[in-house]
C-alpha cells in the first residue's frame, strides 16, 4: 500500500459482529462516503 492511501475496515454484519446495529453500520458507511467525496444517498440515482 502506498503512502497517502486510506484504508477502511468496516465490520461485516454477521453473528460475530452482533453488537453492530444497522444505525452504527450506516454511520460508518456515511463516514467512508464523506471521506471519498461521494454524494449523500438522497442525491444518488
UniProtKB/TrEMBL annotation:
<dbReference type="GO" id="GO:0016798">
    <property type="term" value="F:hydrolase activity, acting on glycosyl bonds"/>
</dbReference>
<keyword id="KW-0378">Hydrolase</keyword>
<protein>
    <submittedName>
        <fullName>TDG/mug DNA glycosylase family protein</fullName>
        <ecNumber>3.2.2.-</ecNumber>
    </submittedName>
</protein>
<keyword id="KW-0326">Glycosidase</keyword>
Amino acid at each position: 500500500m502506498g503512502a497517502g492511501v486510506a484504508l477502511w475496515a468496516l465490520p461485516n454484519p454477521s453473528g460475530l459482529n452482533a453488537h453492530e446495529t444497522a444505525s452504527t453500520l450506516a454511520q460508518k458507511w456515511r463516514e467512508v462516503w464523506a471521506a471519498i467525496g461521494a454524494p449523500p444517498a438522497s442525491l444518488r440515482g
